[in-house]
Amino acid sequence: MNNFSSAQSVRDIRSATCGPVGAPTITNDLSENIILTSLDDLHNWARLSSLWPLLYGTACCFIEFAALIGSRFDFDRFGLVPRSSPRQADLLIVAGTVTMKMAPALVRLYEQMPDPKYVIAMGACTITGGMFSADSTTAVRGVDKLIPVDLYLPGCPPRPEAIFDAVIKLRKKVGNESFTEREKIAPKHRYFTISHKMKRIDPLVTGSYLNAESQKAALQAGKEVKIKSEKLIEETNAN
User: Fold this and answer.
1) Are the CB atoms for 114 and 54 separated by under 8 Å?
2) Every domain of the chain and the residues it spans
3) Phi and psi at residue 235, in whole multiples of 5°?
């Protein structure tokens, strides 16, 4: 009897000190069963939790962006699902140098994305031209000259952790948006859809010098020298 009472007392002490979790009680209070929110908050929460980036990259910055897809960083936890079609993407991470030849394609991809859409300029070459801004004749000195940029991510190249930080800051921006103010901040003059008015000129380097008589004579002389050297090597090996 004493053993039973001592065991029971130990159980009572254990249950009193360990603080076991009891069964949840169901209440009928209005504040505990109904969530009150606004349409803006609900819509922004759905959008910031499902940002779908476009699989687009032009240079070495895209290697860092592609590393996010792997299991080491796993950016799926942010709701980011990479899409291969601009029709299904709402986030454009411009990763790498943008050249003048690539600029029309970049603008076309941006315009094919449905609204609302966001742009992250990733890397120094994308933001200002980077190392190519001094002497390159083809690099665009900043992608914001072509399309509106929501967030700038400096680095050469930025690490995947920096991309996470940029995505978190973009999520905060998406969460603070409003239906009524969206038209006020919509860009109207930063990009264009009309055809350019550049004048087409003939290329300077046409390859016509290959048909010149001096070039043909030089090629023939080179072939003769090659044949003589091969014969000399064969005779040397035979002796």
Assistant:
1) no
2) 44-185
3) -65, -40
Q: What is the pLDDT of residues 90-140, one digit of tens each?
A: 888 888 888 888 888 888 888 888 878 888 888 888 888 878 777 777 888
Class of domain 44-185: alpha beta
